[in-house]
# Entry
Amino acid sequence: MKVGHNPMGLFEYNANKELIVRLNYDADLIQSITELARSKGVEAGSFTAIGALKRAKLGYYDQKNHEYREMKIDSPHEMASCMGNISLKDGEPFPHVHVVLADEMGNTKAGHLLEGIVFAAEVHLRQLEGPRLERKYDELTGLSLWNME
Amino acid sequence: MKVGHNPMGLFEYNANKELIVRLNYDADLIQSITELARSKGVEAGSFTAIGALKRAKLGYYDQKNHEYREMKIDSPHEMASCMGNISLKDGEPFPHVHVVLADEMGNTKAGHLLEGIVFAAEVHLRQLEGPRLERKYDELTGLSLWNME
Amino acid sequence: MKVGHNPMGLFEYNANKELIVRLNYDADLIQSITELARSKGVEAGSFTAIGALKRAKLGYYDQKNHEYREMKIDSPHEMASCMGNISLKDGEPFPHVHVVLADEMGNTKAGHLLEGIVFAAEVHLRQLEGPRLERKYDELTGLSLWNME
# Structure
């Protein structure tokens, strides 16, 4: 396994529509973004979101053992930051989302968002037009990374 | 009060100007963004910002009792993340802003930004052109959410 | 030293290319963004990124004594949030980057990113076309801020 197996990759896009979206109360953020991308034909894009979640499941990727650890967040939190991108995985729109949550004292929990039940969420999604952006298994990291070769 | 009272709402916009802004030392971030939106005629938009604050006031929304709790942050912090959107509330440009602050040890406080006194702040605001984006009281959450019906 | 020495400054840009970039394993995020900007001729821009870092160095700016304090983060973290901008400093593309990192418990460290060794990182960079955006020493803060006079 050699370092540099996945060198910097770069694709150029043009901006298409800018979507402003209010997610459904009690919906899962990840599922909602997936459905949104599917229904609007978004195959490449990037988004930010703010709002609040009723509960969530976060992931931390163990870089050594190549596995996700999951953390349940079972109480309401502000979604202080949420950013992600959309690309294709197995030919379907796939959102990759990271989040910073804040509790009633302003204290934070953060990581990869696996599940997030919406109390209120305001999303700004930028649809990009250009090369096909597809994920492919990367041996070096054990992750599905963008195939840009 | 039925779940699904506020289903997913979606508006499509075209990007207009991209504004790069340096906020005034000692100004309040929320007021500055409001004035900026008003002076440039931004009625829908989204932004990110980085920099540092001299002090701040954060909010956490109590999802059960439908009220904001306020937290005073009385010391200088890095503004590690700041993202927000602009829409209309009572016919006027209204910024909705979330922030992650970091102290000298890298420890964080985060939430809804109610007030933030600027030490230095660099803003990137994207002006959007399209449907009128207006907030309206939502009974289910007790919040002013986007009216997208 | 008078307050208001650096009042709000505003430049207007048009969006150019949207760059989607996968950073190189083991590369430094700051250096990678600098090289990217140089190679693509990006003199003004803004970006977000998500992924994971193997280690990092964070900065906190002491607003009173006008000096950066550095914090070494010597273990793998999720990059829960990363946002930054590109402008010119001494005539060269210069990235200003803030980050929120999360450990295996979801606990966070955040601040100004001085160095970040990439495990995996997905960047969305928006190239902006318009006025020359150059940093200049600002006496009031001791920082290199945008010269917008």
Remarks:
- Residues 1-5 of chain C have pLDDT under 50 and may be disordered.
- The two ends of chain C are 18 Å apart (CA to CA).
- Chain C touches chain A through 38 residues (CB under 8 Å).
- The first strand of chain C starts at residue 9 and ends at 22.
